[in-house]
Each structure stands twice: as C-alpha cells, then as structure tokens.
Amino acid sequence: MQNEQKKSIKISLQRTLLPAIVLALSVQGCAHQEKKPVNEPVQPAAKVEQQPVVQPENTAPPPAPIIDQYALDRLKQMSDTLASTKAFTFHANSLIEVPAVTGQFLTFFTDTDVALQRPNKLRVDVSGDVPSFQFYFDGAKFSAFDPYKNLHSVSDPLATIDEMLEFVATKAHINFPSADFMYSNPYAVMTKNLTHAIVVGPSMVNGVPCEHFAYMEPALNWEIWIEKGKRALPLRLAMTYKQVPNFPRFMVEYKDWNLNPKLNADMFVFKAPANAKLIEFDISGPSKNQSK
Question: What's this model's pTM, rounded to 2 decimal places?
Fold first, then answer.
C-alpha cells in the first residue's frame, strides 16, 4: 500500500516543466466532454468503410550538408563569452505552440529568470501562462519546487552544473531550451549533431543589432540571433521539432543580460516550507533530451 501511495504522488517533471502541453491536453479532454440531453436516444453508429490511406511519396533526397564557417565562428564566440564568465543572469520570454483538439496550435507564454554561478550554482524561476515553479542547484543537490501544489523534489549529490544538466535531461526528462547556454562548453553541446549551419543575415532584436543564423540537426531545426560585436550574446532562439506531428515551434527571447552580477549565496539554496511535501523525481520515463 505504501509503495502504491508513494508511486501515486511521484512528481513528473516532464509535466511540471512542460505544463503548457498538459494544459492543452486538458483542454482537449474537456472539449470532448459535451453534455447531452437527458433522454436523448442512443443512435447506432453508421458503418464506415475503411479506405486505404495513401501515403505521399517523398522522392526528394535530403539536402546536402551545408556548413558556413562564419556561422560556426560566431556560435563559438558566443559560447566563449558565456563560458568565460564566472556568473551571469538573464530574463527570458518564451512561447510554445501546442495543438488543440481542433488541430490549430495554441500559444502559451512564460517568463523565466536565470542566475548562474560557475562551477556549481544555479537558480531558475518560471511563471506566466504555466504554473509557477522554481529550480535550485546549491553545488550539492538539485531541487525542484512547485509552490502552487507545495511539492518539492531533491536529487542525489551532483558536483557541477554540467553534471546537474545531464541529470535534468537524461534522468528527470526535463526539456529546458536554455540549458545549452549553461554548460561549461556550450559550443560543444550545440554543434554535436549539426548537419547544416548557414548565415541568414543582419537583424534586430528589441532594437539591438544582431546576426541571424540557422542550423539543422536530424530531429531539430533551430535558429539563433546573436548580438553584434565582442559580447556576442544570444538574443533570440527559435526551434522546430521535426519528429513531432505538425512540427511545433518554440521561441524564446533573452534580455537583461548581466555578465558580472552580485549574487547572494542564499539564493541558490532551497529552503522547503514547513508543510511542503517531499516527493521523488520521476526518472522512469524515456529520455528525450531535445534541449537547445
């Protein structure tokens, strides 16, 4: 009985961290629960002949790999900027597309504040259209807190941000689109599966001059807008998931970058409220590390 109760309250961080998807699924479920008249007669379902599904032929070969060295160079410069800082903070506004029961995409918006201190401190606060939640990494353990449900989970000991991010992606199954920027070597992570890298051209993000680049991987197309000049900070990121039906998109804009913040050590330490319930990370599901 205790094991069943324990299993029933396991936190699913895939649902906690992608609550917009869960919300959309809930909307779909409600849409199907239409009320019917009390004495409505039950009509037998009409027999429908199954027609063979015709699959369109796709004889076009995949595009030949295109690698523009400048697209790699600027990505490397951005990576070096982030990797060389002892600490940084930023604010992000993101949107994710989720299909409704009608087939159209619904758009959900979130706000995220990130504070990172190398080699082993991280704090993330998320709010917006999704239920608020918080992440803490104090240099020893990774904690996740849902203030609305007053639930929290704590990992086994972890030594570095890199190790913590690997746990988040492969064990807790959290899809965190800004995770690559937090590794000690973002360039190595972001170029691991690249098949294409091209220069799109000059652009502007919120009045800041930048350069627009596009990259392809087997399961993901993504674009990044990098600030012009020596700082080369990421200002916008867009992703298209090619192996998901209808190719949903995820987009995030970054602002208020601070590469020399004054951070209080206490901000990385999670202090559970007295009545908060400690539950386990759900590490039984499949690994889906599609973060960028």
Answer: 0.75
- Look up residue 269 and give its amino acid: V
Give the residue from 167, 165, 164 showing the smallest Cα distance to 190: 165
In a domain, 73, yes or no: yes
20 within domain boundaries? no
Domain span at residue 138?
Answer: 66-278
**What is the DSSP pairing of strand 66-67 with strand 196-205?**
parallel
Alpha-carbon span 199 to 251, nearest angstrom: 19
Q: What is the CATH number of the domain that holds 92?
A: 2.50.20.10
DSSP states of 60-88: PPPPPPEE-HHHHHHHHHHHHHHHH-SEE
| Whether 153 contacts 280, CB under 8 Å | yes
Residue 287, pLDDT > 50, answer no
- What was the pLDDT predicted at 148? 86
Q: Cα(274)–Cα(54) distance, rounded to whole angstroms?
A: 60
Structure confidence by residue, pLDDT tens digits, 99-137? 888 888 889 999 999 999 999 999 999 998 877 889 999
